[in-house]
UniProtKB/TrEMBL annotation:
<dbReference type="Pfam" id="PF02861">
    <property type="entry name" value="Clp_N"/>
</dbReference>
<keyword id="KW-0677">Repeat</keyword>
<dbReference type="InterPro" id="IPR004176">
    <property type="entry name" value="Clp_R_N"/>
</dbReference>
<feature type="domain" description="Clp R">
    <location>
        <begin position="2"/>
        <end position="187"/>
    </location>
</feature>
<dbReference type="InterPro" id="IPR036628">
    <property type="entry name" value="Clp_N_dom_sf"/>
</dbReference>
<protein>
    <submittedName>
        <fullName>Peptidase</fullName>
    </submittedName>
</protein>
């Protein structure tokens, strides 16, 4: 699939691997893909993010990802659902961090130098890349661009999609910005 990616999309994949390595993560996850997309400049995805006002709020997105990692990767919706069952996730996080230190539930490794070689892609990151290919094919685009990866992130369930939606970036809004009036009707 890598040969079908544009230069900007390949940069996103490489950037995601770098973010995973920097965090000491064992695999590249969808959140790393989102962080790499936020780093992009002068690409279709960066245009879409800027048009939706996310350029000025990148730090807010990064903070939301950090908070999700502190909750062991739970989305805010999942934390709210648990709260409905009487489980206070923030209290659990506070207790664990009191004993084991801040970020103990994040899964970040303290010994970041242990890894050599390539990072594998986690299930959610693979799903994003596969969906980006499907989106490109459905749009009859020859190559998968970083805009397709961003669209896939908004369409795949999980923390990145929730955070993007909280910041006004949804599949629908992004499609309108990137392609005009929305998806073409099949007929």
């Amino acid at each position: 699939m890598f040969e079908r990616l544009t230069k900007d999309a390949r940069d996103v994949v490489r950037g995601a691997a770098e973010h995973a390595e920097g965090a000491g993560a064992r695999s590249v996850e969808a959140e790393h893909v989102l962080l790499a997309l936020l780093d992009g400049e002068a690409s279709r995805a960066s245009f879409g993010l800027a048009a939706l006002g996310l350029t000025e709020r990148k730090d807010s997105v990064r903070q939301a990802l950090t908070e999700s990692r502190r909750r062991a990767g739970l989305s805010q919706a999942e934390a709210d659902a648990l709260a409905g069952l009487g489980i206070d996730v923030s209290e659990i996080v506070a207790r664990v961090e009191e004993v084991h230190g801040v970020g103990a539930m994040s899964g970040d490794r303290k010994d970041k130098g242990w890894w050599s070689g390539r990072r594998t892609f986690g299930r959610d990151a693979k799903e994003v890349l596969e969906r980006s290919l499907r989106i490109a094919v459905a749009r009859r685009d020859r190559h998968v661009g970083d805009e397709h990866i961003l669209l896939a992130l908004t369409a795949c369930p999980g923390v990145p999609a929730e955070i993007l939606a909280d910041h006004g970036v949804t599949y629908e809004t992004l499609t309108r910005v990137l392609y005009g009036g929305g998806e073409a009707q099949a007929g």
